[in-house]
UniProtKB/TrEMBL annotation, chains A, B:
This is AcrR family transcriptional regulator. It comes from the Bacteria. Residues 15-75 form the HTH tetR-type domain. InterPro entries: Homeodomain-like_sf, HTH-type_TetR-like_transc_reg, HTH_TetR, MT1864/Rv1816-like_C, Tet_transcr_reg_TetR-rel_C_sf. Residues 160-180 are annotated as: Disordered. Keywords: DNA-binding, Transcription, Transcription regulation. Residues 38-57 bind DNA. It holds the Pfam family TetR_C_33. GO terms for molecular function: DNA-binding transcription factor activity; transcription cis-regulatory region binding. Gene3D superfamilies: Tetracycline Repressor, domain 2 (1.10.357.10). PANTHER family: HTH-TYPE TRANSCRIPTIONAL REGULATOR RUTR (PTHR30055), HTH-TYPE TRANSCRIPTIONAL REGULATOR RV1816 (PTHR30055:SF243).
Length: 311, 311
């Protein structure tokens, strides 16, 4: 046996033992919770001395990190498999569809003053403030929010009349414009739900009650970012939002350092709503809060996501 | 000292010791998590033998139940204090405002056939199916969903023309009709958020990762119902929804045994959305998932609730 063959075989053995330890850890978590995780107990189960086991995982935190990393990786794979990549559909990639759709309305050339009349008073002030602070025009800030030069709903031709119209009346598209992308978003949510229901402990390890005393290392964040990027891609492929920009949309223009995604702030907002709404229903479902209520949480999830697309 | 005075003093002492044990338990939960809760460790801390402590709490589960009950009670008190009771505002109680507001539109007398044209095809079929199965008219089922005889958006006068109009175009009220109730809903959400942030462990004990092996007794459900009833009251005071009934609204007509509240299904739906959306943002915030993202979760919560009212 050559030196590199010996090394390869040692590495395979090491990976195999680590995998075995992790399986025991998951069983302990299911039985007694992650806080009760004991490396010594696992060592006994795999027929190893405590110190021998510590050669595979340096500490309880090291083991938890490995489990969290596996869980995120599995979720990211699931989300990527469920989210149809924009390149393989008829939907143009990322910000492109937003600009294209809005260009069909008469409002794209509306001046910044026109934008101001569309938005609520508070939103308009905020856009102006951000623009002044950043040395940019209001139109430029608006573009950062929606990907177009108009704020939320397109400025309707009828807006010059004295009749007040609801914000969505003159939306350039019907709310559920593209059945393909709508289906994809629901498909994505249901894939995540199936993944979570297959192993609720795994879901709760990453999204449940934090483990006291445990601190995730920096590179765990990099893996969780993969999940967010897949959500952002899915939201970027949706028809543009038809509601006026909110305070949170405007806030996200200057609070978006957490992603390199080129999508406008309104898309970041949708991805955050997708994440928090799905987590809200899913975590309460998995924790058994709906058990006595007997309704179908799947229908609630579908509605929560449809409402997101109507916005 | 009379016998009853002695008994009263013994009961006060017992309550005091139980309180002291619970305080130690909360500290243990914060340090090591609820799964690591140890009655023997607490006994040592309060200077008591294990068997002596078991006279105050019969088991670990008994202690956890007491903590969960305290947490729910505190949350229910917070929610009740934040939710302005309908009787003390200008908003009529429960289902009344829905009927009153809708009565101002021309659509209340619309026949069941008119309902069918307003709703989406799938929803209409479902309403008809439920009605047939229950031996009721479609209009009666529709009333169970929205509290009116029309489904979601009122049937607009213009609906007889050949021009298709978005569902919300002819809504009888502007979406944010009543600024008082809107403020109350946000006030309620922020009160719950403040309560949760003041003691995240308490929030996670009732809404976080389930404790392996622990089963809540029946009467815990009764306390959690108080929280839901307060949410339902707040949602019942909102302007009626202007969107067509969804599959979940229809589903709730026959899946509402979990509450005695007289509100229509659409209001039950709103209360569930309020709960799950707020929990989605709040639990991720408390678990630190937004820490590196640096946006203000409060603005996201406000938007999520406003979107609920616009529906």
């Amino acid at each position: 046996m050559t030196e590199s063959e010996g090394q390869g075989s040692r590495e395979r053995y090491r990976a195999q033992v680590r995998e075995e330890i992790k399986q025991h850890a998951w069983r302990q978590i299911a039985t007694a919770g992650v806080n009760a995780l004991s490396l010594n107990a696992i060592a006994k189960q795999v027929g190893m001395s405590g110190p021998a086991l510590y050669r595979y995982f340096a500490s309880r935190d090291d083991l938890i990190t490995a489990l969290i990393r596996d869980a995120y990786q599995s979720l990211a794979d699931t989300v990527r498999a469920a989210a149809t990549p924009p390149a393989t559909t008829d939907v143009p990639a990322l910000a492109a569809p937003i600009a294209t759709t809005s260009a069909t309305s008469a409002s794209v050339a509306a001046p910044a003053a026109g934008v101001a009349t569309t938005a609520g008073a508070a939103d308009t002030t905020a856009v102006t403030d951000i623009a002044a602070g950043a040395g940019a025009t209001s139109a430029a800030v608006t573009r950062a929010i929606t990907g177009t030069t108009t704020l939320g709903a397109a400025v309707p031709a009828a807006a010059t009349s004295t009749t007040p119209a609801p914000a969505t009346t003159n939306a350039p598209t019907t709310p559920n414009a593209d059945p393909n992308t709508v289906t994809d978003l629901a498909k994505l949510a249901h894939a995540i739900r199936d993944w979570a229901r297959a192993d609720p402990q795994r879901y709760f390890l990453i999204y449940g009650t934090p483990v006291p005393g445990y601190h995730a290392p920096e590179d765990t964040t990099a893996i969780s970012t993969q999940v967010m990027t897949a959500l952002l891609d899915a939201c970027a492929a949706l028809p543009p939002t038809t509601t006026p920009a909110t305070h949170f949309d405007i806030h996200l223009v200057t609070h978006r350092d957490w992603t390199d995604h080129p999508a406008p702030a309104a898309t970041l907002h949708r991805a955050l709503s997708f994440w928090t709404r799905l987590h809200g229903v899913l975590s309460l479902e998995l924790a058994g809060h709906f058990t006595g209520m007997k309704f179908d949480p799947d229908l609630l999830i579908t509605d929560e996501l449809n409402a997101l697309i109507d916005q």
